[in-house]
Every structure is written in C-alpha cells, then in structure tokens.
Amino acid sequence: MKNLETAEFVCGLEGTDVTLDPPPEPPLYLAHQTWVIETKLSERSQPMTQEDVNDGLGLPFAAAKFLCCPKETPTKKAFMRIYLQIPVAGTQYESRQIRQEQAAKPQPHVELTTLKALKEFECDVVPDLLAYQEGKQSEESIVPGGYITYVVWDKVPGEPLNAEEFWEQDFKSRQAIRNKFREAFPKLKKYGYLPRMSTMSKIIYDKATGDMYVLSVIE
Prior knowledge:
The chain has 5 helices and 9 strands, in the order ββαββααβββααββ. By secondary structure, it is an alpha+beta fold. A 6-stranded antiparallel sheet has the order 1-2-3-4-6-5, with helices on one face. A hairpin with a 7-residue loop joins strand 3 and strand 4. The chain is globular.
C-alpha cells in the first residue's frame, strides 16, 4: 500500500456505472439515477494520525473528483465527488482486520451540507445538487466497512474566470462581471454562506447569458 501523502485511493473507475439512491429529506427529493463516470479530474487526501482522531479533528479521507453523466442522457454533464475513509497514518500496512476496526459512519463534508442547504433555499448562484449517497466501503476496500460518500452536482455553463483574461477585457466587460458578482454575493450572504478566500477560477461566468456561479462556497 502506498504512502498516504502521495497515494491515489479512488482509481480505475472510468467507464463504470454508479447508481445513487438519495434518501428523501423533505423538502429534498432527489431522483434514483445511474451515473457513468467518464474522466478523473483530481484527487486529494487528508491523512491523520491516531492522535489527530483522538483529538476530535475528524477522520482521514481521500476525495476524488470526476466528470460524469446520467446513463440515460450522456450529453448532460455533471461532476461527482467521492469521499473515501482511508486508514489512520501508520496503519496502512496493517492487516485487513485492523483497518476494518477503524470503520466509521459517514462523516459530514462541507461540500455536501452546503449544496443541500442552498438547494433547499433555491439559490441560483451555485451549481444544483443532483444526487448524493452515503454508504459503506466493500469488504475488499481500503477500510473495510468504512464510509464512502458520493456527491453529484451540475456542470454549469460558462468558464472559470482568469485574472489575466479578465484584465485584457475592456472596462465595460469587466464592470459587467463585477456587477454580477455584486448580485451573487448578497444571495449567498442571505443564507449564511460566504465565498472562502480563493482564486478567480472558483467563479464560473457565462459570457453568453451573464450568469455567474460561485464555487468557492463548496470547493
């Protein structure tokens, strides 16, 4: 098993089907649907020692992002994040039984809780939550019986803002983008969510429609 700092834990899923059955949580009723994983985009991990866990800092996990689509409508694109519990640092080479003893119930992740809340509020400046599911890893997985969480959200139209391209635009175009952000910010603040310090790339802007989506509240 590889070093936790550099290992990729969510691998070989391209081309596979993932069927998600979100639980009914009024007023949220998300459809049972099968998604096809197309391309892996990124993966990051948050290793932790047993001391970190004992101190209540959470559990170690990996999070991988994929491009996906509904099996019935492959032209409709979306993003999927898979959160996977990983072994406590120093136990990755231990027996399956020892790793299984670390198995825990699904943990809260900001991305999912935020998308659920803003969907309930019908907030239109973040991507729409399409599906999610919290479950257990298989007995052959890295933490047998450990938690695994799937989150699927809409791939919104537009492109990430780029500082260089932004300043290359004329004043009128730059001002239109600023004004749109001034409209989006109060919508998030109204529901208690503020964009985290991030780069312009976490803002998606559709030049054709003028629509803007702020990703830094979830990513």
